[in-house]
Amino acid sequence: MADGKPTLTYFPVHAKADPIRMLLHKAGVDYTNELISFADFGALKASGALPAGQVPLWKTVDGKMLNQAYAIIRLLGRQHGFYDGSSIEESFLVDWALETSLDLQNSRAYRVYMQDESTEEELEASKTNFAKFSKQIAASLTERGTTFFAGDRLTIADFVILSHFLSMAFNEANDKPIVATAAATVAETPIIGEYCERVKAQLGDYIASRGAYVC
To answer: In terms of CATH architecture, what is 88-204?
Structure first.
């Protein structure tokens, strides 16, 4: 812990920590953004310093060490007013968005964005799973016509969804063809691009300062 501030520990990539960083920025939380190398991670894991051997890790001001990215963002969302919707239905949509995002993560679609070489099977699986995610998000936005995903108020669902699109389809730091493929998928449904711009506008200068990483 640095200077009595909470600390978020993760690799120098967006990935699982990006939505958490978005929330902390929007909430105006003063925290330490601790970036560790993969070698550092290995040493920390071997030492037993990481709960369940995982990052991201959220260290609270009173010394608690919390893991699991979506549990962390739900906790912080509750603390700062970005979790619960204004109705039971909106709260369902927040959780639905997180579960749908987790499906994308668990499909390992991100792997082809990071590794030097990928098989045709891996590339096709990534394209398919990203297209599935995009279609689901677009359908939900179209059906309800709200400003943000769960309603007319920003929630953690928006941070999680935006992070996927920024890393996979709108990522100038990654020159792999898969990024252009994902961008073309998004271009087929303009409502996604429009939605992403609305969420980005809520984050001020965070988007420009969040760093250039491959994912």
So the answer is: Up-down Bundle (1.20)
> CB-based contacts of 63: which residues, under 8 Å, 6+ apart?
1
What's the pLDDT tens digit per position in 81-92? 999 888 999 999
Phi first, then psi: what are they for 169, rounded to 5°?
Answer: -120, -30
Which ranges of the chain does DSSP label H, i.e. alpha helix? 18-27, 38-47, 69-80, 88-106, 111-114, 120-144, 156-168, 177-187, 190-202, 206-209
Nearest Cα residue to 34 out of 62, 75, 6, 15:
6
**Which is it for the CA torsion 172, 101, 63, 6, positive or negative?**
positive
Provide the whole-model pTM.
0.94
Q: How far apart are CA 30 and CA 73, in angstroms?
A: 16
CA angle 199, 97, 215 (to 5 degrees): 65
How far apart, in Å, do the first and last CA atoms of the chain sit? Answer: 27
Task: Give pLDDT, residue 3.
Answer: 63
Q: Mean pLDDT throughout 98-116? A: 91
Class of domain 7-80: alpha beta
- Residue 66's DSSP bridge partners are 58
* pLDDT tens digits along 16-46: 999 999 999 999 999 999 999 999 999 999 9
Q: What's the token pair of residue 119? A: 């098989």
**Extents of the domains making up the chain:** 7-80, 88-204
What would the two tokens of residue 71 be?
């549990």
Spatial contact of 103 and 133, defined as CB atoms under 8 Å apart: yes
